[in-house]
Amino acid sequence: MPSVRRTALAAVAADVVCVVAFCTIGRRSHAEGLSVSGIAETAWPFLCGTAVGWLAARGWRRPTALTPTGIVVWVCTVAVGMVLRKVTAAGTAASFIVVASVTTAVLLLGWRAVAQTVARRSGRPLRS
């Protein structure tokens, strides 16, 4: 498998892990069940947003780039996730939007910043 393809698949996997972690932590902090179905129910709107972000940013071109890929994926994850939650009568309180925005920013942009820093320090180019 070519390096670029591996990098893109790893980046998609990292984004999915970040979104699922966000939803799992949220469910735990609100004393909701941590079953696979419960986490999936919470995560699906945000995962749809992540997919929209990847398509909109053409994330496979520069999967580890903070901009545009990371920013577009993050904004779409939150925006599409909240719209889907709203249309399915799930909670979209202002405080939740703020917490979701900040937390997903730290996760989705944070791993990209770490990956770029590690690559820079190791002296090997990162296919961003």
From TrEMBL:
It comes from the Bacteria. Pfam families: DUF3054. InterPro entries: DUF3054. This is Membrane protein. It comes from Mycolicibacterium duvalii.
